[in-house]
Design brief:
Length: 79
Amino acid sequence: MRDFENVPLKEDVQAYFEREVRPHVADAWIEHDKTKVGYEINFNRHFYRFTPPRPLEEIDADLRLAEAEIVRLLQEVTA
């Protein structure tokens, strides 16, 4: 039964534990010798650029082409 939490750097670990973990898992504990301090850089938050999906008609056309190719290949196998 192992789990981990990302505690905000400026927040007290014990206070966070009592508030966020203890109410849900009464017998939880902290292994202080395995506790680490570090940073998480969320690259998606800083560098992601939204690309809108293709129009539905274009996707449907591609699916119809793929479907026709599958049918053709199946006919070659079964003939």
